[in-house]
């Protein structure tokens, strides 16, 4: 886990192209047509993982870039169909709370999918204890402070009263 | 005698099973979750009742098709006898045997594969569900993102003493089966299917859910909105009274 560095991921693995070729061949006579968009997707696919979120972009004619903040991740699905299992690939589907039931982002072609998934898990909402980050000393709630101030005003007014 | 047969069957089964699970690349280890050290991890699979339930379901669907195939075969035999073409029987018999055995065997194997790949992991903060045959899916959901927890069990499932815990997160709840094709379920949902202690699991999830202070959506890092309590109002009244008596 510690040796895994997601920021170094930029391109999908070559095995993804193999997977695309196999899926295209499975469509039979249509494979010539199917392979083209898949080939261009593979060629243009770029990933970027930074401290706050991740982005994924692809496309030649229709360029798409998706950016998702780690904190907004709701569900992470790691799917492997049988061909992907043979090739050691996986699809990581990221979902936020948006209305669509299809995933917002499908990360394909990463060989260390398990490590990446666990990295995303540690960054996602609710995976970490965030209450520990705020120790008791620095947490004076505003309403408490307001109450203290009001009491002070009251006392001052009482003192000022002749 | 029957015991020996049983052993042999079990051995054969395991041998075939080993090849099949390797071929299907069934994960060897149960899934795990990255945890804080010392945090207990609860990992379990569906109960045996679930396997029995799936098999009953399987036999209930298989029986009519078998009867149908047998009737079809007999009618073909009768028809060929009356038409005086006995060679049709030789053609129809292997087809009937094929139809009566191969899909059923595959279906039976699929049940076992499904049972073998299914795993559930609960940690203090999240749950992970692994399931699937052709496509193995591992869903990770933190308790904080859970919107509601449902326990469901049908009449036959109750006979086998099992239930399903369904966990929903925010977002679309439409099936989405058209967008993903066959076998794809709603991705905003996790299903802990076929467990004998469904109510207990729901209770566990709910109690861990209530531990998290953030409610529903939004960034939990933002401090709670300042509000007025009864004490504030009382203090303000005192100020007003103090000012009144002064004037």
Note the main sheet of chain A: 3 strands, antiparallel
CATH class of chain A: Mainly Beta
Helical fraction of chain B equals: 40-55%
Order of strands, main sheet of chain A, comes to: 1-2-3
Oligomer: heterodimer
Large-scale geometry of chain A: elongated
List the domain count of chain B as a whole number.
2
What name does CATH use for the topology of chain A? PH-domain like
Approximate shape of chain B? elongated
- Average pLDDT rating of chain B: 81
Q: How large is the share of residues in beta strands of chain A?
A: 15-25%
- Low-pLDDT runs of 5+ residues of chain B are 175-184
State the order of secondary-structure elements of chain A, H for helix, E for strand: HHEEEEHEEHH
Please state how the strands of the largest beta sheet of chain B are arranged side by side.
1-2-3-4
Biggest interface, CB < 8 A:
A-B, 48 and 57 residues
How large is the count of helical segments of chain B? 7
CATH architecture of chain A: Roll
Count of distinct strands of chain A: 6
In terms of topology, how is this protein built?
The complex is a heterodimer of chains A (162) and B (247).
Chain A: H1 15-26, H2 31-44, E1 46-49, E2 53-58, E3 64-69, E4 75-80, H3 82-87, E5 91-95, E6 105-108, H4 113-123, H5 142-160
Antiparallel strand pairs in A: 1-2, 2-3, 4-5, 5-6
Chain B: H1 2-23, E1 42-44, H2 48-83, H3 87-117, E2 119-122, E3 126-131, E4 136-142, E5 146-152, H4 155-159, E6 163-169, H5 177-180, E7 189-195, H6 198-211, H7 230-246
Helix pairs in contact in B: 2-3
Task: Sum this structure up briefly.
Chain A is an alpha+beta fold and 162 residues long. In chain A, 38% of the residues lie in helices and 19% in strands. Chain A has 5 helices and 6 strands, in the order H-H-E-E-E-E-H-E-E-H-H.
Molecular structure report:
The complex is a heterodimer of chains A (162) and B (247). Chain A has helices spanning 15-26, 31-44, 82-87, 113-123, 142-160, and strands spanning 46-49, 53-58, 64-69, 75-80, 91-95, 105-108. With 162 residues, chain A is of the alpha+beta class. Chain A has a single domain (6-130), classed as PH-domain like. In chain A, a hairpin with a 3-residue loop joins strand 1 and strand 2 (53-58). Chain B has 7 helices and 7 strands, in the order H-E-H-H-E-E-E-E-H-E-H-E-H-H. In chain B, strand 2 and strand 3 (126-131) form a beta hairpin. Chain B is elongated and about 120 Å long. In chain B, helix 2 (48-83) runs antiparallel to helix 3 (87-117). In chain B, the strands form 2 sheets. Chain B has a 4-stranded antiparallel sheet. A 3-stranded antiparallel sheet of chain B has the order 5-6-7. Chain B is α+β, with helices and mostly antiparallel strands and 247 residues long. Chain B has 2 domains: 1-30; 31-211, no CATH class. Classes of the chains: A alpha+beta (162), B alpha+beta (247). At the A-B interface, strand 4, helix 3, helix 4 and helix 5 of A face strand 4 and helix 7 of B.
């Amino acid at each position: 886990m510690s040796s895994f560095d997601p920021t170094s991921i930029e391109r999908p693995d070559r095995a993804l192209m193999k997977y695309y070729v196999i899926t295209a061949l499975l469509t039979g006579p249509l494979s010539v047509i199917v392979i083209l968009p898949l080939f261009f997707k593979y060629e243009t696919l770029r990933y970027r993982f930074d401290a706050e979120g991740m982005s994924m972009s692809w496309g030649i004619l229709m360029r798409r870039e998706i950016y998702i903040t780690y904190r907004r991740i709701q569900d992470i699905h790691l799917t492997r169909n049988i061909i992907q299992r043979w090739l050691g690939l996986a699809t990581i589907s990221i979902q936020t709370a948006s209305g669509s039931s299809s995933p917002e982002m499908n990360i394909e072609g990463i060989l260390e999918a398990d490590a990446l998934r666990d990295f995303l898990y540690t960054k996602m909402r609710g995976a970490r204890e965030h209450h520990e980050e705020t120790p008791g000393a620095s947490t004076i709630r505003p309403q408490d402070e307001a109450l203290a101030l009001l009491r002070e005003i009251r006392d001052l007014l009482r003192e000022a009263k002749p | 005698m029957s015991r020996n047969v049983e052993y042999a069957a079990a051995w054969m089964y395991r041998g075939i099973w080993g090849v099949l699970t390797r071929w299907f690349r069934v994960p060897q280890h149960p899934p795990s979750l990255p945890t804080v050290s010392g945090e207990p991890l609860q990992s379990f699979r569906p109960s045996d009742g679930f396997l029995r339930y799936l098999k009953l379901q399987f036999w209930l669907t298989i029986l009519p098709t078998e009867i149908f195939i047998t009737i079809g075969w007999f009618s073909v035999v009768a028809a060929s006898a009356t038409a005086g073409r006995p060679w049709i029987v030789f053609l129809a018999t292997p087809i009937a045997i094929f139809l009566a055995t191969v899909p059923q065997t595959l279906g039976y194997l699929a049940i076992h594969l499904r049972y073998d790949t299914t795993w559930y992991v609960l940690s203090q903060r999240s749950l992970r569900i692994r399931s699937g045959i052709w496509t193995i899916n591992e869903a990770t959901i933190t308790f904080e993102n859970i919107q509601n927890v449902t326990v469901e069990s049908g009449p036959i499932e109750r006979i086998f003493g099992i239930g399903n815990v369904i966990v929903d997160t925010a977002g679309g709840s439409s099936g989405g089966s058209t967008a993903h094709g066959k076998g794809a379920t709603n991705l905003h949902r996790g299903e802990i299917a076929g467990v004998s202690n469904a109510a207990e699991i729901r209770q566990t999830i709910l109690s861990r859910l209530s531990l998290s202070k953030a409610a529903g959506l939004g960034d939990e890092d933002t401090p709670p909105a300042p509000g007025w309590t009864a004490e504030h109002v009382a203090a303000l009244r005192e100020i007003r009274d103090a000012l009144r008596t002064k004037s």
